[in-house]
Write the structure tokens for this entry.
Amino acid sequence: MPFYENVFIARQDLTPAKVAELKQKYTAVIEKDGGKVTKTEDWGLRTLAYKIQKNRKGFYVLLNIDAPATAIIEMERLMRLDENLLRYMTIKVDKLEEGPSVMLEPKYKKSKSDEKFDVEVIEEGEM
């Protein structure tokens, strides 16, 4: 079966429990049509780049899906009708990511190029 990644943005005034219900609802739709959701990630409440339906923030959720195309079509049809969702996007991928996604990594990772160099202080009389 093909692999898909789906990200949806729920309204900011929903409770985290309601967002979890939405996640379960769409997981059930996928499983009913013969697919499976291999990974779900809550990215939390984030600020949007621009207002969508008078909302400045939204709850982001990622679903990694292994399902036939008919399951994806049905899930997207239900997402279009759901007034709690601001946006959604599903893309077909060659393989699913293992481990946490890029969005869950810390914003700043220290690399070797960021390390401070030891500086030797030379006083005026030593030159």
Q: What stands out?
A: The chain is about 25% helix and 35% strand. The first helix runs from residue 16 to 32.
